[in-house]
Structure formats: structure tokens, C-alpha cells
Amino acid sequence: MADVLTFTDRGIYCPAGDFYIDPWKPVDRALITHGHSDHARFGMGRYLATAGTAPVMRHRLGQITLETVRYGETTRIGDADVSFHPAGHVPGSAQIRVAVKGQVWVASGDYKTVADGLSEPFEPVQCHAFITECTFGLPIFKWTPEDILTQQINDWWAANAAAGRASILGAYALGKAQRLLTTVNPEIGPILTHGAIENTNAVLRNQGFPLPDTTLVTPDMSHKTHPGALVLATPSALGTTWARRFGTASTAFASGWMALRGVRRRRAADRGFIVSDHADWEGLNTAIKATGATKIFATHGYTSAFQKWLSSQGYDAHIVSTDYQGEDFDQAEGPEA
Amino acid sequence: MKDFATLFTRIDESTKTTVKVAALADYFQTATPQDRLWTIALFTGRRPKRTITATRLRTWAAEVAGLPDWLFEESYSIVGDLAETISLVLPPARNITERTLTDWIAYIKSLSAREEDDRKAGILSAWDSMPNTERFLFTKLLTGGFRIGVSGKLITRALAKATGQPEPQLTHKLMGNWTPDTTTWDALIEADDPTADLSRPYPFYLAYQLDGFDDLGVPTDWNAERKWDGIRGQLILRGGEHHLWSRGEDLMTDRFPELAQLLDYLPEGTVIDGEVLAFAAEKPLSFNALQKRIGRKTVPKKLLTEAPVILMAYDLLEHQGDDIRNTPLKDRRAQLQSLIADVPATAPIRLSASVPFQTWQDLSAARDQSRALNAEGLMLKRLDSPYLAGRKRGDWWKWKIDPLTIDAVMIYAQAGHGRRANLFTDYTFAVRHGSDLVPFTKAYSGLTDKEFREITSWVRKNTLQRFGPVRQVPPEHVFEIAFEGIQASPRHKSGVALRFPRMLRWRRDKPVDEANTLDDLKELLATYG
Ligand SMILES: [Zn+2]
Ligand SMILES: [Zn+2]
Q1: Are A161 and A189 in contact (CB under 8 A)?
Q2: C-alpha to C-alpha distances, B471 to A13, B218, B221, B415, nearest whole angstrom
Q3: Which of A106, A172, B106, B194 is the most exposed place for a label (fewest CB within 10 A)?
Q4: Which of A134, A135, A110, A105 minimizes the C-alpha distance to A122?
Q5: Which fold has domain A146-274?
Q6: Do the chains contact at B420 and A328, CB–CB below 8 Å?
Q7: Ligand 2: distance of its center to the CA of B268 in Å?
Q8: Of B20, B120, B140, B227, catalytic
């Protein structure tokens, strides 16, 4: 029997439906898992995405031909039945299920299994083959539980505010920033945002996501006009002149990479909060098990180790090269920025 | 250990020296004296004796975490630190209990006398009783090597702040081979005789690289000498015994037994700063000759005749039992000279001669002869300068020769570890040979983080083949590789081994067919090997 999905130099391809999933080169028909720029790219003839992902895609890609579907709704494309299911990665993000003649394959896109209070929570989808990301596919990655994380960030902010310092927190503009916004305690002080984040906030507020009040940073603002503020910035804005207006602020990054002391120290921030919109080791293993799939394709991340691990656990596991970047805050222009 | 963990976190999280010093000073005022002493010991490289091998620790940790050994190793190669890897993969602790740092160290010691099964049970229960940071620190104690970004300088600055004593005096007190088992906080820090320990060395004076002659004044104020390419050492003759210390505060006495005879020729109470050199027929041998003796605790006879060493003396720090570091260099050198003049030529010591010069241009010419003399460059020292502690600007300068370089092609890349765990930073380089590429060295430092990021993203998109963690990439990028020395090596495919290879520059302007060839490399070997 032919494979439901194949791997080409344009992206993941479905021969039965003649469409691509998250392609990185121009194609006629693209199904998009979520709005991050390494997954939703320019130049496709037609796009299909969830209703929750559409606004951010329009915001980022401008005029595009875009159809939307609801989670769980089945669409027939050629000989394939296609449906989108929550991936828990960012608001609107989806795994894409493709069924052809009783064979079910699922492309995970990016996902995480713990609920972040904002994104639609991850739902396991039964399938025969599962294409999984493994950005953090090593047992050294374990995320801080949400309640402890919230307390860590609030304590850090409150201590800085008490000492008269601003708190600058670096996080991706889509997803991570809003997720942090919903967990911090707005009573500690004013919340300021970098332009890239505020734009995304506006898109999500329009969709009805409840975000606390935030203020866009303008040239006249500083630690003097907004004492004790929490400043949400993109990772690339930290350490720039943009950030310097806040004086001797305390800086922090929110990323899965903060689990590693070495990376934490290289980024030279005062604090590192271990939080990611990707699954940690435990999350990956639980998610894969819950699909019931026997055939697994590992993409972007520690693919070789993860493939070997899955094989040792009895899966028919393979490595697939893709152009997705995972959580890479080292990119000056991060794919998730 | 909670207060020690808090101290560690404060230091580790901050990039600001003032914050680190404040954290340490707080700790030195609040922790128990014994904990303070252990903290100083750990931060200055005096770790407790290893009671359990690293192999055992990784096996036990992998077992508790339910991981196959290879996956533990893979994780370790990414994290780059064994203790951190262990603390990350272990399941969360279930029975948190608080003990002091000193207690935990005693606990570790008590395990050494026990049977293997008991030791294992002891370690597992300790891991299960500590939150993550404490667990990491505890495992660090077991694995040794407690480098956490605190320099000796910070320790003394914090101690000065906490005790009110001057820094140089504290630096001196902390030198030598004391351990928390052989001394106390009172004896080491509060008492005021730093020479109570006969083997205790003085802090080494270190120079910065010269950045121009503009601020030096007139040439007659300066002494120039060769910067010899050996091992910097401090020879101590006190109480009828001799001790040889390296700059890293390693005791090297037994590695260079020929220096023992200096006890017969030099007076009691003498301390000399110099360079241990392989030396024959009144000439230094190349560093390659000395290399054979490094890392050997004892020396076979054959090697003693093949690569005999001497102490090339730079400076005199103690004379007839008096600390003379504050007398001017010209007087110290005069005394050193007269000491050595009385020693027969068969004894393994020489005075590092002054290099005569009238103008700075003369010096430049002298520097150009360095490689031929097996020297690394020149040293410039102000004639009226005292012997200071640590790296200081102003009175002493080193003027090293430029490294050897070769343009090479990157052919493999591997992810770094620790600080650079998510970047491809370790590369294998090749030179051209006909239409082939012959690998000849690895290098993993010298580029900026920005360049590493750019290459990382290129490697991800251009991987040709994977060999475990190593990725073969198309030969497209040329790098200038700098190194300090070259020697023949039958173990390497290229037939050469480099000393201190690193990337000097990414030569974006150079196409691959302009990279150097194997013949170029062999020519360097013939000239400098
Ligand atoms: Zn994403
Ligand atoms: Zn992604």
C-alpha cells in the first residue's frame, strides 16, 4: 500500500490529495499547522488552516487565499480525508490527520502536551503513523510545572519592582508571550510590550482571547515613566538600544533551552525560566504512545538519538529532514519571533 | 546545604561582578566557619577526594532514570557536565532533608570505607533527598572540578569585603596545598603569618598582551627578555626541601626530579619565578620535547636524558627568607644574577638573559627571531616595578609572536556542549591534496556567537550524512586556522598534529580551491616542527 504522506524537498506531501503540509517552497495547495514563520510561509497558491490560526496568518502573510476549518471537522481533498486537531503549541495550532483508504497518518506540527491556559489543549489522535517533532527529544528536558513557573516569574518581577528595577522578559511574539501574559500577576505593576508582541496581542484579542492590559513601548517611555514594569520583548530585542531605555533592568529569557546551565550562562541574562511551547521528554513519549502508532517519523531536533530511543522501545522509527527550526532562540530573526 | 545552593544560584545567575562579590561576602559572614572554609576550598580547586568513580555514578543515575547507557551518554555530550546531566535526568526527590555543606562532604567521605552496595545505596538516597540545585552541587562534589565561574580574584575580593583584610595578603594566604582537613578558618584566614606553610607559593604575576608602545615612556625604563615556551613554575627552597608549583597551583616537584639538586647550590629561603624548559647544549628544545614529560607523574630514565629540563629563571621573590617582591625589578634581578653566578654550569638553572635594545624597533627585530629560539615572544618589564599578584596592567607586558596559520576547509560539524549545546561549534578541517581533502585538525573556538549561529543554520540545511552526532557537510567554507606549534604524528591521516588549533577567521572571501594544501602543511612541519 502506498504511503499516505511522503517527504519531498518542498515539504510533507500527500499524493492521494495532492497537497502539502507546512511546505517550505511554493506549492499549489498548503495545509498549515500553525502560524509560526517556519511553518506558514509565503508563496503558496491556496492555504488551509484552522479558524484560530487564520487571523495571525493574514496578519503575517497579508493577502493570501485562505480557507479555514474547525477542529475535528473532516474535509475531503482528492482521495484523502483531512482533519485538524489541537496541538497545544500556540492558540489555533493543529496536528493534521490524513486518512486514505483506512490508513491514518498524523503530522504533529509543533506541539506540547501540558495545558498553558491559553492554547487549545493537545488532543492525542489515534493513527498508524505519526510524524513528530523532537526539538527537545532528550531526557534532560523537563519543564517546570505551570504553578511553580508562575510563582518564579511573579517573584522575580515583584522583587525587581520592589528594588525599583524594570524586568525585561524575552519570549517569542506568537504564543509564548501571550501565554506568559495570562499567568503573570498584573497587580505587581504595569506590563509593557515590544511592537512585534503587541501586534500579535491585538490579533489574539480580536479573536476573543482574554489577555490582560498591556502598553506598547514608545520612544518616550523608560523605567522612570513606568517604574517596576514588566517588559515583554522578543529575544532578539534584549541587549539592544531598545532595551537600554529601561536602565539597569533585570533581564530574563523564557525558553526550553534554559534547562541547560551552559546555554543560560551564554545568553547572559539574569534569569532563565524553563518554559517551552514544545513537548519535553516526558511529553513526547506520552504523546507518541497515546497515538497508538507503530510507525514514527522524527523531525527537527535531536532526531538521531530520539529515533534510536524509539526503535529501542519497539517502534518502527525513522528520521526525516525538514526545514522546521523548533525552538531556536539563537536565531537573530527567530522563526518563532 | 541550602545556603550554599543559594550562594551558587546568586553567583551563577548573575553576570555582574558586584553581585557575585556581594553574594560571596554575605555568605562569608553568615555561613558556619567550616562551611566557609570548604566553599573557599571548592572554588579554588581543592575538591574532596574522589570516593566513587564517574563511571559508577553515570551507571547508577541511568539506572534510576530508566535510561539505556547510550542515551545517558548522548545527553551528557549535549549538557557537557556530568553532575548537571545526572541532576537533570534523575526523577524528582521524594525525601527532602537539609544538611550543611560540611555534613554532606563528611557523608561522602564516610562512604569510601563502605562496600560497593552500601555506597550505591548511600548515593541514591542522597540524590533522593535534595532539590535540583543541591543535587547538582552534591554530584559536583562527587565528580570534582568545581569550576562555576568564580575566579580566585572574586573570592579574595569578597573575603576582603567580609574580613577587612587587604586583597594581596588574602591571595597569598590562599595559595599552597592546604585543605579544610589540614587547617581551619581561623588559621588560614584570621591568623597573620602567610609563610607558616613552608611550601606555600606566592601568587604569580601575569602580564597582558602589549597593545602599543605609546604609554611605555622611554626604552631605558624597561627590561626585555624572552618569553620562553615551557611551563611557568615557581621554585621554592625552604626548610631543606624544594617545591615546584605551576601557575595553576599544581605541585610539579616529582615530575622534574633533576631540579632537586638546586637545593645543594642555592641558599635556604629562596623562591624563584621561572620557566621549566627542555634544554640541551645551552639551547631550549622545542615544546614538543617537553610535552613528553607533561602528564607523567614519574619519569623513566630514558626520558631524563632525552629531554632534560632546567629552570630558566625570570625573577627572585624571596631571598634569604625575606619576601622581596616590593623591591624594584632591577634589584631583584641583580640578586638573582649573583645567586646563579655561584651555581656550577652543570646545575639545571639559567638566568633568562636580558635582550639588549635601544629603540622599540630593535625589539621588533628581536621578536622576529623568537621562533628560531623556541621562544613565544618577548616580555617587557618595567625596571622599577614590584612583583605584583595576578594579571595586572602597566608594568609587565607580553609581546607574543603571531600564531602560525593555514586556510582550511570545513568538512564535518558537531554540536557543542554546555554553553553552546544548541549550536554546531566543533568542526573538522581538511587541506587540499590533488582532488582530495585530507582532514588534519579539529577546532571549536575563535568565532563569534553570531558566526556560530549562522553556520549552525547552514549545517542544518546542508547535512550530507550523519555519523551519530557528527554531520558531514559540503566542503564550501574556508577558515583560517591559527596554531602555536606543529609536530609529526603518525596517528593522524595528515601526518601532523597541531598545538592549540583554533579558528582565527571565517574566510568568506576565499573559494575552496584557494585553501591551503597538504604540501603547504608539510612545509610548515619542515620549518617549525
Ligand atoms: Zn511553532
Ligand atoms: Zn516549528
Answers
A1: yes
A2: 26, 55, 55, 9
A3: B106
A4: A110
A5: Rossmann fold (3.40.50)
A6: no
A7: 70
A8: B227
| Overall average pLDDT of the B182-187 stretch | 89
Query: What are the residue ranges of CATH 3.60.15.10 in chain A?
Result: 6-140+277-319
Chain B partners of A325 at a C-beta cutoff of 8 Å?
460
> How far away, in angstroms, is A327 Cα from ligand 1 center?
7
- How close A260 comes to chain B (CA, Å)? 7
Asked if residue B281 belongs to a domain, the reply is yes
Task: Say if domain A6-140+277-319 classifies as CATH 3.60.15.10.
Answer: yes
Q: Are B123 and B27 in contact (CB under 8 A)?
A: no
B297 an active-site residue?
Answer: no
Q: Is B347 helix (H, G, I), strand (E, B) or coil?
A: coil
The number of domains in chain B is: 3
Question: Are B79 and A140 spatial neighbours (Cβ–Cβ below 8 Å)?
Answer: yes
Which position has the grid cell 551558587?
B8
Q: Which residues of B touch A270 (CB under 8 A)?
A: 13-15
State whether A265 and B78 contact (CB < 8 Å).
Answer: no
Q: How far is the CA of A328 from the centre of ligand 2 (A)?
A: 9
Cβ–Cβ < 8 Å for B154, B17: yes
Residues B236 and B364 grouped into a single domain: yes
Q: Domain residues for B38?
A: 2-143
Q: Which of B367, B400, B433 is the last residue of a domain?
A: B400
User: Same domain for B378 and B472?
Assistant: no
Q: For the ranges A28-32, A210-214, B31-35, B469-473, which has the lowest average pLDDT?
A: B469-473
* Sheet with strand B396-400: strands edge to edge: B208-209, B396-400, B375-382, B222-228
Rounded CA separation A240/B432 (Å): 42
Q: Do A270 and B65 touch (CB under 8 A)?
A: no
pLDDT the model gives residue B47: 78
Q: Residue B187 carries which DSSP code?
A: I
Same domain for B515 and B372, yes or no, is no
Contact B457 A270 (CB under 8 A): no
pLDDT (tens digit per residue) in B468-525: 678 899 999 999 999 988 888 888 888 899 988 999 999 988 889 999 999 999 999 9
The answer to whether position B162 is within a domain reads: no
At B18 the three-state DSSP class reads helix
CATH for B94: 1.10.3260.10
Is B68 close to A312, i.e. CB distance below 8 A? yes
| Closest Cα in chain B, distance from residue A269 (Å) | 7
Q: Whole-angstrom Cα distance, residue B391 to residue B205?
A: 6
Same domain (yes/no): B387, B487: no
Pairing between strand B349-351 and A19-21?
Answer: unpaired
Chain A residue at shortest CA distance from B74: A305
Residue type, A186: P
Spatial distance between the Cα atoms of A58 and A262, rounded to a whole number of angstroms: 38
Decide if B149 and A265 are in contact by the 8 Å CB cutoff.
yes
The shortest C-alpha distance from A275 to chain B (Å) reads 15
- Judge if ipTM > 0.90: yes
Q: Give the residues across from A232 on adjacent strands.
A: A169, A193
Q: Do B13 and A270 touch (CB under 8 A)?
A: yes
- CB contacts of A328 in chain B (<8 Å) are 422
Ligand with minimal distance to A337 CA: 1
Q: Which residues pair with A3 in a beta bridge?
A: none
Among A141, A248, A260, pick the best mutation site for testing chain B contact (most B Cβ within 10 A). A260
Instruction: Identify the contact set of chain A against chain B, taking CB-CB distances under 8 A.
Output: 138-142, 257, 259-263, 265-266, 268, 270-272, 302, 304-305, 308-309, 312, 321, 323, 325, 328, 330-332
- State the span(s) of chain A assigned CATH 3.40.50.10890: 146-274
- Beta bridge partners, A100, equal A103
This model's pTM is above 0.90:
no
Of A259, A266, A304, the CB nearest to B466: A304
